[in-house]
Amino acid sequence: MKLYLRHVMLSLIITSLGACSVLPEAEQIQIYHLPIDGSLKTISEPRLNTALSVAEPDTLRSLNTSRISEFSNVQIQRYYAGARWADRAPTLVQQSMMQTLQSTDLFSQVVNAESDLSADYLIHSNLRAFQIENSEAGEKAHVILHVTLVSQLDRQLLGSTLLAEQVPVAGSSMQDTTAALGEAMDNINTELSEWIYMLLKPKSD
């Protein structure tokens, strides 16, 4: 009886080892940071004594992720396998806006809206596209951001604008893909900085 049980146990061990050998390997994930150009050139104007607060953009659930989106047409969304952003897309966009607004030196202070720091104006936005789009003409990065500027003093809406950029993807690697999205975001941030400045600039008589 003991010999029989020993054979049964040995068979179970061999079977379980065989099952382990056919388990799929864990997916290798590469983490990508959104490239930000710290040397962007904007308008040459005196700094405003103004503090800005940047909120994280609202967006659809399908874009509120660290996965990198790809659209084969306007309706079908997929995600690149084995690739992730370093954070969720809205957080990356918020951080890139803050870094650009700070680097322009057009405003006295730029802070995160989630912080306890006070500011004169709030930048609220809606991220409508942050993706790679495939077409017969090739791949392109597409970013759309609707931005609203609100006075923190009286909650008055000062203005809103729709910013959109498309940048061709230069190659076939993920570095080329993320670089194109970074360039599109850089262009939007430059437009955003100039739009906010001109909106808040004191009007001459």
TrEMBL record:
Residues 1-21 form the signal peptide. Keywords: Signal. PROSITE patterns: PROKAR_LIPOPROTEIN. It comes from the Bacteria. Residues 47-191 form the ABC-type transport auxiliary lipoprotein component domain. This is ABC-type transport auxiliary lipoprotein component domain-containing protein.
